Amino acid sequence: MKYTITLLPGDGIGPEVSASAVAIVEATGVAVEWERHEAGLRAVEAGHGTLPEATLDSIRRNKVALKGPITTPVGRGFSSVNVGLRKALSLYVSLRPVLSWKGLKTRHDDVDLVVFRENTEGLYAGREHEVVPGVVEALKVITADASTRIARYAFEYARWRGRRKITVVHKASVMKLSDGLFLDCARAVAADYPFIEVEEMPIDRLAMQLALDPTKFDVLLMENLYGDIVSDLCSGLVGGLGIVPGANIGSSAAVFEAVHGSAPDIAGQNKANPIALVLSAAMMLEHIGERVAAERVRRAVGKVLAEGKVRTGDLGGKASTTDMTKAIIAALPAIEEVTA
Ligand code: NAI
C-alpha cells in the first residue's frame, strides 16, 4: 500500500528536519508519496497568504500531514499560522508525549507523561481588541463542547494506553467561570472512567510539582495557553525541545509536528536536531496503522541516544542534522526484532 501524506517543510530549520524525517520514514520501507505544500513565511514569499487554500485542501484530502515549524512574525498583520491551521482543520487535540531517554543527562530519570492541550480556543481564540489607545482586551473563550471533547479524548487515550492517572490542570480559583467550566466538563467525563485516577491541580502548583518531581505525573489535561507553556516546560525536563514530538488531531485530519519552533538562530547550518520531528513522524506512522515501522523508528532513536556517539549541539555534541539522520537509519532494528 502507498500512502499519500501532505508534507509542510516549514520555515527556518523546518526543511532540514523534515528532510531527515522523510529519509527515515523512507528507510523503514513504508511507501509514502509526499504532497509538498507551503505555509508561513515561504508561502508569503511565494505570493500566497500564510495559509494557502491549496495547503489546507491537501490536508483535508489526505487526512494526514507532517509539518515542520513555521515562523510567525511578531506583531500586527500576521496571525499565527499554527493557530490558523488548528482552527481551520478543527485539530482540537494537542498530544505531546514526554519521555526520558537513556543516555541523556537530565535532572530527572523515568519521566513518562503525556500533555493533552485543548487546541482551538482559550486565549488563543485570537479575540483581542483595543478598547481605547493604551487599553487592550484579550478574551479567553471556553466552551463546554470543546472542553468535553478534549477531556473525552484524553480519557479514551488513557484507557487504551493503560495510563493510570489524569491530572486536570486549571486556575479555577481566579478564573471561576472559564476554568471552572473546563473543570466541570472534565469532571463530567471522568465520571465515565471510574477506573482511572483523577486529580485536579492549579497550574501554578503543577509548575512547581513538575520541577520537583515530574515522575509523579502520567496524563496532564489542560486548556490551550497552559498546555503551550507546560509542553515546553516538560521538554526541558527530558533534554530540551530537540527531542519532544507532537500531534494535532481532529475528527477528520491529523497534523504531526515537533514542539519546537523554526529556530532561526541555527537555520540553514545543518545543526538542528531532527529527533523531535522524527519522533513526530513515528507518531504519524502509528496513526496510519504502521505500528511496526513506528516502533522501529523509536527504538533506533533510543539506541542512538543511549550510545551517545552522535549528538547534535542542543544535546551537547557536534554532530550535524545529516549525521544524526544517518545514525538513526543505521540503527533501525530488523522487523523481526520488533515483532518477536
Ligand atoms: P524555537 O523553538 O524556534 O527556538 C528556541 C531555542 O531552541 C533556540 O535557541 C533554537 O536554536 C533551539 N532549538 C529549537 N529547536 C531545535 C532543534 N530541533 N535542534 C536544536 N536546537 C533547537 O523558539 P522561538 O525562537 O521562540 O521561535 C522561533 C520561531 O518559531 C517563531 O517565529 C515562532 O513563532 C515559531 N514557532 C513555531 C512553532 C510551530 O510551527 N509549531 C512552535 C513554536 C515557535
Would you spell out the secondary-structure blueprint of this structure?
Elements: E1 2-8, H1 14-28, E2 31-36, H2 41-45, H3 53-62, E3 64-67, H4 81-88, E4 93-99, E5 112-118, E6 128-132, E7 135-138, H5 144-161, E8 165-170, H6 178-190, E9 197-202, H7 203-212, E10 219-222, H8 224-238, E11 247-249, E12 254-257, H9 275-287, H10 291-307, H11 321-331, H12 335-339
Helix pairs in contact: 1-9, 1-11, 5-6, 7-8, 9-10, 10-11
The structure holds 1,4-dihydronicotinamide adenine dinucleotide.
1,4-dihydronicotinamide adenine dinucleotide binds at residues 13, 17, 69-72, 82, 241-242, 257, 260-266, 272-273, 276, 312, 314.
> Ends: how far apart?
23 Å
Strand order of the largest sheet: 2-1-3-12-11-4-5-10-8-9
- Radius of gyration over all CA atoms, rounded: 20 Å
Question: If you consult CATH, what is the topology of the largest domain?
Answer: Isopropylmalate Dehydrogenase
The profile of the biggest β sheet is: 10 strands, mixed
Q: What ranges have pLDDT less than 50 throughout 5 or more consecutive residues?
A: none
What molecules are bound to this protein?
1,4-dihydronicotinamide adenine dinucleotide
Indicate the overall shape.
Answer: globular
Helix content: 40-55%
CATH top level class name of the largest domain: Alpha Beta
Please summarize what this structure is.
The chain has 340 residues and is an alpha/beta fold. The protein contains 12 helices and 12 strands.
Note the main attributes of this structure.
340 residues, alpha/beta, Isopropylmalate Dehydrogenase, 2 domains, ten-stranded mixed β-sheet, two-stranded antiparallel ribbon, globular, binds 1,4-dihydronicotinamide adenine dinucleotide
